[in-house]
Amino acid sequence: MALPAIDPEAPEFTRRHVNLADARLGAEALVASDDFFAAKERMLNPEPAIFVPGKYDTNGKWMDGWESRRKRTSGHDWCIVRLARPGRLHGADLDTSHFTGNFPPAASIEGCCVPGGEPTEQTPWFSVLPPVNLGGNRHHYFPLGGDAVCTHVRVNLFPDGGLARLRLYGTPQFDATAVDADGLIDLASALNGGTIVATNNQHFGLATSLLLPGRGVNMGDGWETRRRREPGNDWCIVALARPGLIRAVEVDTCHFKGNYPDRCSLQATRVPGGTPESLVTQSMFWPVLLPEQKLEMDRQHFYDSQILPHDAVTHVRFNIFPDGGVSRLRLRGIPAP
User: Fold this and answer.
1) The pTM is what?
2) Which residues are in the Allantoicase domain (predicted)?
3) What is the pLDDT of residues 193-212, one digit of tens each?
């Protein structure tokens, strides 16, 4: 599985927030007006879109994305997607990779909130992204307001064409009832609303991968820094979904063998907020939550008794020594009242 490469031109919301339109996380394309040439489900694939020369199916050229037929009537094509979790949307990527003479000239996104159900003909929709112009074979990044909670979106193509990928970056609603059997909840999980505030380096893999559910599918599905050639260590800062007490920590180096960190540690504190730059400066002096621990390749490391006493915290600094790759970080605990 080839996971998305780091796009240096991508805006901050793609690195900080989780893609709630990711099929791997549970998003689903429910219904479309037309997907004659390419199935609607493909546009929710987390892998980068590919092009296969000479590959055809019974309807024509095989394309990696959602593609409708050429419209010969009035109106436009659309697709309704159930998001992986209800949440507020902060940014969109409408990706037309490999669609050149068959991309839609314009598109828009609408949202609705139907907790525990699906939209009907009577469901009211509101604008998430007004109509915007699109080009062929490129990413289109748009910041979104993030004011209203969405459970579903409706993507409109004007009038027809192909969309390789739909990515909607947002903050999921926190569900305090979604606890594990031991009464703990992963306060760092992206699907609970945990986010990466800052990191000093993510040359080979995004730090946001640390907060995804499940184990990494390969070495590209994790946070990996470049080889450090100077003193010091690499780090990232996690904003928890809710203030809480950390009771159990998991550091998973799945798939990282010749490039896993030698050691790791955690620092944590409770802060009301601040800019990423101010938090980076403060984080150097935060109290230790988990003292340095030796790591091994390609395995899950669990810590509980090693966690130092602390009050409820909002932010955690994850230190790796000196550099390397980590697949997942779990910070399981009890939300503060």
Assistant:
1) 0.88
2) 26-172, 193-333
3) 999 999 999 999 999 999 99
- Residue where one domain finishes, among candidates 111, 142, 172: 172
Instruction: Supply the CATH number for residue 135's domain.
Output: 2.60.120.260
CA distance 52 to 246: 47
Residues 6+ away with beta carbon under 8 Å from 53: none
Q: 323 and 220, same structural domain?
A: yes
Query: In the chain, what percentage of residues exceed pLDDT 90?
Result: 90
Q: The domain containing residue 89 runs over which residues?
A: 13-172
Pair (194, 164) in one structural domain: no
Residue 196 shares a structural domain with residue 249: yes
Give the residue carrying structure tokens 């050691």.
263
Cα radius of gyration rounded to whole Å, the chain: 21
